[in-house]
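hey m, so remember when u said the C-alpha cells were messed up on ur end? i reran from scratch. heres the input so u can diff it against urs
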Amino acid sequence: MKTITLRTCENIQEAYILKGKLENEGVKSFIKNENFSYIKPNPNNVYAYGPQLVINEKDFKRAKEILGEKSQEEREVKVCPRCGSTNIGLGKNRNIVLRFILVLLSILILIPIRRRTPKVYCRECKTEIS
C-alpha cells in the first residue's frame, strides 16, 4: 500500500490527538519523525520537520473529512474588489519612505516601534483588502 503524509504537526501531543481521532473512526495511521521532534524542538513548525501523521493513500479523503479540513477547491477564494484578480497575499506595508520616517521618529523619541500584523493585499494592483 502507498502511504501519504496527511499533516506535519507542531509537537508530538498534537500528532497523537489527531491520530486518536482518526483511529476512533477506523482510519489506520502512524507517526513519522516522532523521536526526532524530541531531539530538535520545532517551535511553530518553522522548519517543517515535526512529527508527521501518515495514512494510507486510499483513506486520504475520509481522513480530511474526519479532521474537518477542506480541499483546495472548497476553500473560499478571495477576489480583489478593485481589479478582480485572485492573486491575493499577505504582506506588510510596502511604503519604504513611511517606514523610514517611523524608524527615525522612534529613534529620536525613544519609543519602540510596535509590530504590525501582515495585511491582505492584491499583488496585481497593490490594493489593501479588509
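this time it looks ok to me. Residues 96-109 form the longest helix (14 residues). if urs says something different then somethings off w ur setup not the seq
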